[in-house]
Amino acid sequence: MTSGKSDSRARWFALIVLCLGSLMIVLDSTIVNVALPSIKKDLGFSESSLAWVVNSYLLTFGGFLLLGGRLGDLFGHRRLFLGGIVLFTLASLLCGSATSQGMLVAARVVQGFGGAVVSAVSLSLMVSLFDEPGERAKAMGVFGFVAAGGGSLGVLLGGVLTDVLNWHWIFLVNVPIGIGVSVLAMRVLPAGQRADSRPRLDVAGAVTITASLMLAVYAIVNGNQAGWTSAQTLGLLAAAGLLLAGFLAFESRVRSPLVPLGLFRLRNLATANAVGVLWAGAMFAWFFLSALYLQLVLGYSPLQVGLAFLPANLIMGALSLGGSAKLVMRFGLKRPLVTGLLLAAAGLGLFARAPVGGHFLTDVLPSMILLGFGAGIAFNPVLLAAMGDVEQSDSGLASGIVNTSFMMGGALGLAILASIAASRTSHLLASGHGRIAALSAGYHTAFLVGTGFAVLAASIAALLLQARADGPAVEKATASEDGAASRRESHPPVEALQRVES
Q: Which of 3, 27, 404, 437 is the most buried (most CB within 10 A)?
């Protein structure tokens, strides 16, 4: 008994280490946005070149997620996690010490690669640590909270560090955390086993999919500036599509593919990734557009914007750290996921009516509360659905796939929504409307489209997520002994366990 309790404590301590590592990566995606004006002034960036502080990170982060996940499967998830943390920490030190534009952008490229590796293998490490359905659901809730709440926490932390200290500290704060995570990871994370004593890497597949993702990310993040119908954007997207087609051709023929195409025949994995693309688009509408509305329309300071997100963070924390897991065990995956997405859609819909002279209690807080409930409920089941049917030998790859879906969905969603908001604002300005009113109306239109993303994601989950995912969980929590016995006769114990885990 004592040994069992000690083993359980060790797993949860390992989860904390994983979450700390993932938190650094998630924070970095939003913390830098608050400091961009200070970085621009200090290092002399132009408006166009400043975008590379963000885009250089996104390019390598998005481009190497799939490769990072597969490398973890081949060479060991713990080894790749440690290597990614060390690389990210060193790159953060270089970012915080940067004295020139080139030094900062180059360090951000390295930081993006380290972040991709950590993100790609963290989820697979967590899944391998927790194989019991109830504990896995709770652990996934904690992990989901870090992923969902870290972005808005970055806005708050970025505002505090930039206002109180300077922009260098948004990067330097990663250094002590990274050192601590590296030391603890070597002590508490299981070494695991490699899939093959002589691992083979699909080089052609790795090159083509990485190049395809990097071109697609570059085209998307620069789409608004270059124009969505420009030769640059269309050419890059076409090149990305051709490389993707080449990748699929390679994968169908090679003996040891980077991505076994049979994975996409797993219905819940495919559905969860489709939901993830749309859900990420809706979440980015919340994080970025609501922050712009609060700053540019209501006149909030960066610190006030961070505090405005606090109620949603607290709600997400309460649900992710306990409530969401109980809902999954009680109702399965489908109903909590659909409910959470619809609550988030309602929150975005409320933001679509927030007026120019809005008040926090009446026009901001209700939306934040609904979005907090929605994100807190939905994040756990979508991750469980993505990882539940995958063999352990492919868990790193599946983690890379779901992270890529979120990243690409967020980047594409943000680009689309920002373009829609800018177009609506420009049209109203040309018609003689005031700047604040035009900005507000542009955000309203974008919030409505983001609402549509969330509703479409909920519809896909309701229609396509396999019904078997919620039956056994309901049985576990509510069935009588007689009913449970009859169900055990029709579904063997191993099959039932697999169905609960999925």
A: 404
